Amino acid sequence: MRFCRTALLLVAVVCVVGFPARGFAQAPSAGAGLAADLQKDWASLKDTMTKLGAAMPAEKFSYKPKPELRTFAEQLLHVANANVNFIKAIDAKAPAPTIDAKATGKDEVLKALAESFDYGTTILKGQTDATLTKSVEGAPRFLGPSTAARLVYRAMGHTWDEYGVMTVYLRMNDITPPASAR
């Protein structure tokens, strides 16, 4: 019995003293924090959207499931425009790409999409954890006062919403979305 109490006490001491020394007390690793996380997520989203756009054949960029809906090309251009409009409020001095909202060809649409993500990457690389938590001027009115981080999250959330829509466009054309391919 005495051995069990001693063993339990030893385990408790190791847990209380040992874990903070090994895990919690360590300085954050390089690349940790809000700015680094947003940059990683933004790059990953660019990759996902690029693959999604590339999966649709060029001749299907004019496809739309119903007459009142956007074409596949218009969906991608909508994402590109939204990316630029959300992100430009973070750094109004950085030149934003001009997105041709009337583009219809696969190459020009994918180029516009890439430019919108590259613009976001450039803006995000200039941010720190501290600057991302500051309010920005020029946020879209429907959002009200917003931090830079909120604008990036809104841009990414919007893109994910549209991604979900566009996967249906692919599936209606018997194309498995790249993220679902096995």
Task: Characterize the structure shown.
This protein is mostly helical and 182 residues long. It contains six helices and two strands. The chain has helices at 2-24, 34-55, 72-87, 106-125, 129-132, 148-171; strands at residues 135-136, 146-147. A two-stranded antiparallel sheet has the order 1-2. Helix 2 (34-55) runs parallel beside helix 6 (148-171) and helix 3 packs antiparallel against helix 6 (148-171). The longest helix has 24 residues, at 148-171. The radius of gyration is 23 Å and the shape is globular.
Key attributes of the depicted protein:
2% strand; mainly alpha; 6 helices; 60% helix; 182 residues; disordered N terminus
Per-chain topology:
Elements: H1 2-24, H2 34-55, H3 72-87, H4 106-125, H5 129-132, E1 135-136, E2 146-147, H6 148-171
Antiparallel strand pairs: 1-2
Q: What's this entry about, in short?
A:
The protein is built from six helices and two strands; from the N terminus they run H-H-H-H-H-E-E-H. The protein is mainly α and 182 residues long.
User: Can you tell me the CATH class?
Assistant: Mainly Alpha
Distance between the termini: 56 Å
Bin the strand percentage.
under 5%
Which word captures the global form? globular
Helix content: 55-70%
The second-level CATH architecture is Up-down Bundle
Q: Tally the beta strands.
A: 2
Lateral arrangement of strands in the main beta sheet: 1-2
